[in-house]
Amino acid sequence: MDVSIVVPLLNEEESLPELAAWIDDVTTKAKLSYEIIFVDDGSRDQSWQVIQQLQKQYPAIRGIRFRRNYGKSAALNEGFKIAIGDVVITMDADLQDSPDEIPFLYDMIRNGGLDLVSGWKKKRHDPISKTVPSRFFNWTTRRISGIKLHDFNCGLKAYTNDLVKNIEVHGEMHRYIPVIAKWAGFTRIGERIVHHQERKYGKTKFGLSRFIKGYLDLLSITFTSKFGKRPMHLFGTLGSIIFTIGFAIAGYLAYAKYFMEGYKMTERPLFYFGLLAMIIGTQLFITGFLAELVSLNTRDKQGYSIAEKLNI
């Protein structure tokens, strides 16, 4: 199969028939074999019933229904598990992402040698309360991750099937799939300017709180990607530096007591700062040591991103 289109949705009953017809029309004209995977993230309207009806009209439609709302990341993750297309494309169900982009995204993956193509909504039809924070968010993510994308949060993306089978998306990590992919070894990441349409039905499911959660998730994924399998490099280094500072302070105060002024070490506030530094440094070092043991015991269970296998 050429392409799998994974569409997470929440209360989008009005837009689904138009979206399914649009995708079918575009893929048929492009002569692409396809499947549409609708993932109903606990909708309270008639979205699932609409999907069931659409499946009778379009046999290529497949569906997953959550019992409750788990979030976009969980929906994408479950869609990725069952996707069988050579290229996997994700898009939102609200019709703001244009299915007309599917052939171009497919070509960039299949013939352009890319692992991932991210859409860039250069001209957005969103209020300023969303566009300004989004620009700052994307700028920060570029600086931290080193990935030169303009729009990390764009729902319209394309991936190789190999990529989606080697990553796991959870929590609120869907906006950081390019970062997750990079740390998994999929470094051929590209970008395409895509058409962004005004919302036709319903209202947005995301508020300003997503940006706060987004930054927390960025810190989390940066930490786990760099130090998840070698925590001693972080905690051990910090602990050693802080303990050394505290030990140097204690050494200076001991020298001052016997060779300079002759006062009691405990009479100076600097003594308590040095003592605290040594305690914190020791605790950080022990934390790193224990984390290293946990990482060692779970390393085989976690697995690694394997590029190829030969004769196995």
Task: Please describe what this structure looks like.
With 312 residues, this protein is of the alpha/beta class. The protein folds into two domains: 3-227, Spore Coat Polysaccharide Biosynthesis Protein SpsA, Chain A (Alpha-Beta Complex); 232-301. It has helices at 16-29, 47-57, 72-82, 102-110, 128-145, 161-165, 177-183, 209-227, 232-259, 269-302; strands at 3-9, 34-40, 61-65, 87-90, 116-120, 157-160, 189-193. The protein has a seven-stranded mixed beta sheet with strand order 3-2-1-4-6-5-7, with helices on both faces. Strand 2 (34-40), helix 2 (47-57) and strand 3 form a beta-alpha-beta unit. Helix 5 (128-145) runs parallel beside helix 8 and helix 9 (232-259) runs antiparallel to helix 10. The longest helix is centred in the last third of the chain and has 34 residues, at 269-302. It is elongated, with a radius of gyration of 26 Å. Residues 304-312 have low confidence and may be disordered.
* Spatial extent as radius of gyration: 26 Å
Q: Helix coverage percent of residues? A: 40-55%
Describe the strand arrangement of the main beta sheet, using strand numbers: 3-2-1-4-6-5-7
- Uncertain ranges: 304-312
Secondary structure category: alpha/beta
Give the N-terminus to C-terminus distance in angstroms: 25 Å
CATH architecture of the largest domain: Alpha-Beta Complex
- Major sheet description: 7 strands, mixed
The CATH class of the largest domain: Alpha Beta
Task: Tally the helices.
Answer: 10
Shape: elongated
The count of DSSP E runs of length 2 or more, i.e. the number of strands, is 7
By CATH, the topology of the largest domain is Spore Coat Polysaccharide Biosynthesis Protein SpsA, Chain A
Oligomer: single chain
Order of SSEs, N→C?
EHEHEHEHEHEHHEHHH
Q: How big a fraction of the residues is strand? A: 5-15%
